[in-house]
Amino acid sequence: MSSPGLLLLLLLLATPPPLQPSSLAPPDTPEGKATIMGLILSALERATSFLKKRLPEINLDGVVGFRVLEVQLKGVQEKWARDPQLQRLSLRVGKLAEKLAPLLHRSIFYLRLSDPKYLREFQPTIQPGFWKLPHAWTSTDASMVYPTFEPDSFSEERSDSCLVQLLGTGTDNSQPCRLSDSCRTLMTKPGCSGYCLSHQLLFFLSARMKGCTGGLFRQSQHYMNLFCANMMDLNQRAEAIGYAYPTRDIFMENIMFCGISGFLDFYKLQWLEAILNWQKPQEGCFGRPAAEDEELSKAIQRQQHVLRRVKRREKQFTDGCSSHNTAMAVAALGGFLYVLAEYPPANGELWPSTLTPRSC
């Protein structure tokens, strides 16, 4: 079990370098916006080539990230179709979506061979139509950040069991949107951080995607506000210590889940630049950093802090590529692309400064 207070101690007592502004071109001009979108598309094209090469070995979590990306690309196409100045970029988006669709379809065949039980339980999350883009945008509320974190007792098995109940894919042929008392307790437990926190959000986000609105799910927006406020806090802490490797996976997962939950302030230009820099240029994947970046990473890894988990089905490749890292990265990057299409940036920001947190 990881030590509960050690992460905060490491993050709060570290002396971080001053946060540097992004060196990307400002997105508040047509040229700057096109440059940034081109960089994102290039990264996504390389990642999709990685998916094609490693498709038989990609796990279900990896496929989820690319399925979310597919939805984001379609959303971008709809926005750009009305802008003649973006025709060339729109064609690239269309070609990428066309390349991705058959790969996602074929992935189910390989998942059926490699992990049939997990596929049966979570197949809804990789089916077309499950993931939906936000209808409205909001921002996080810093006043909702927990004063302290509880001891880390995250169990991926228990979390998965609650998601199976919610999805209605268990062996008991139950209906979706079911919620046991133990899952209610687990998924609303205050003080979580790391993957415990992101899986709490995933639970309520999945409920929204399934259309669950009764009982506890009447309060879904409150819990999503709460969880994303704390996920924002953890991402800012990860930025403050220079995005040490063990924090990168959860950092990108937080952007993916809170972004598709409608929290626009996760799309920060300096965070986009960081993610783009983590891609392995030849392989197209995301994963273990180069050797020169590993000393700090190893030191923090040895502490077993709360931004880590043992992903039971994580797929690490011998070249340092990670199926889960890559999935989180492409869904985060797809979110940045969609936001750039949805909101013409102003003053160098990727979202309007007038947004206020959404009420419950």
Automatic annotation (TrEMBL):
Q: Can you cite an annotated GO cellular component?
A: cytosol
Presence of the UniProt keyword Signal in the record:
yes
Q: Which UniProt keywords apply?
A: Signal
Signal peptide positions (record): 1-21
Task: State the superkingdom.
Answer: Eukaryota
Q: What is this protein called?
A: Chromosome 16 open reading frame 89
Record gene name: C16orf89
Coiled coil location: none
Q: Which GO terms describe its molecular function?
A: protein homodimerization activity
